[in-house]
Amino acid sequence: MHTSRVHQPSPLSVTRTRSSRIAIITPFVVAVLALTSSLQAQRTELERVIKRTVLRNGLEVIAVENHGIPIATVELNVKNGAFTQRPEYEGLAHMYEHMFFKASKAYPNAEAFGQRSAELGARYNGTTQEERVNYYLSLPSDSVRGGISLIADAVRGPLFLPNELAQEKEVVLGEYDRNEASPGFDITQKLSAALYPGQASRKNTIGNRDVLRTVTPEKMKFIQSRYYVPNNMALIVTGDINPAQIFAYADSVLGDWAKGADPFQLDPVPPIPALTQSSAIISEAEVGAITVLIQWQGPSVRRDRASTYAADVFSDALNTKGSRFQRLLTDSGLWTAIGVNYYTLDQVGPITISGQTTPERLKDALAVLWREIDKLDDPGYFTVSELEAVKAQRGTDNQFGIEKTSELTHTIGFWWAVADLDYFLGYVDNMARQTPPDLQRYAAKFIVGKPSVTGVLISAADRARLKLTDADVVGPVKGAKVTP
Length: 484
What we know:
This protein has two domains: 45-266, CATH 3.30.830.10; 279-473, 2-Layer Sandwich (Cytochrome Bc1 Complex, Chain A, domain 1), CATH 3.30.830.10. It is 45% helix and 15% strand. It has helices spanning 27-49, 92-99, 110-120, 144-156, 162-180, 185-195, 209-212, 217-227, 243-254, 263-266, 305-319, 324-331, 362-373, 384-403, 405-418, 421-432, 436-446, 460-466, 470-473; strands spanning 50-54, 60-65, 71-78, 123-128, 133-140, 233-239, 279-284, 290-297, 337-342, 350-357, 453-458. The strands form two sheets. The chain has a six-stranded mixed β-sheet, sandwiched between helices.
């Protein structure tokens, strides 16, 4: 098992195409027409192939039929993860993931589970993210019923044997140690704590070493009883399958499982406190190039969907080679590389600008970057033509994504947990509607002049030589005094 601290799977990514010149119809019109046709076709195709039902206990079952090859994926998604963690449980959502494919009422130990998996020809794994945990099997399609049963046995009857828990605790602590040894670990942990005041445990998937050492079977059972209930899960089965048969079999092995209490009514997730001032974190490590990370609190996908669509197009536009942003910052040589990202989450996803530069250029690079950030909400910063190109690129790449059902399984699971399936189905249409004023409003609402956290990863020698202080890197805030 492994923990995942990566950016969310994007509903759409980008590839680049060029329009050829046509005598009467302009390349721009061609691009718009092609985009509209492509996105409408994708929505229709998604709605055609994605089938879903809800069992009487609230468990959602989603099936995607694709008979290209005789392979299927069975995935269970749970609305658990870092966002459910109080400080005393920091990292235990990930620990639970490690215990999933272990002893259960159906299998006396992990070896027996593994043996049954091998008989089915299955490969299995799981990941823990901020707002979902998923477990999946890839196996021959003629073993899909056995795969569903295997997942059902694991989720319904875990035993949390002390010897297996002790073994997995050391595995997780080993993961923690390897992460901690990375030069970027310290700064990312501190950035998260600063960006989410008092709520860092609800963003920390890898966990806290001291808390991980306290894990007990009782703590695992608490997580099971609170979050591992059918009405807080989705079973997704994709590939060479028959959806009607999947629904019937899922009901036969999971339908009699009693519905649980709503975990988020029992223990509501507290709101993320808004930042009130900008701050800086300078972390020293044995590195050559200097890494800069600037983060803002971004939108919540459940409370401000419109801003999440704008965020994705905004990031893509700035990241496009040849954009005004890239020409000024990377083509000039100030930055070796620089990128913009919004990580879509319900509990306030982060907006990040990350870049690398040299010690000699750091102060100038930061000064120019902050001046450019201050212009991101200017009318005319983005043009209609560049946005249409960005959206067309996203649409093209999305078509490749939906054709590979194993990847589509994980993508559907992520969006089911973080937003809902309708968000995923409607994404292409809503993304295509974004205009320059939409991006202008997004930048003004979340970035320009808003409190931020700036992190700089630099060697001790370079920091001393530059006499670098927090005041040198902290971002400006409109209408507020900045206290580094």
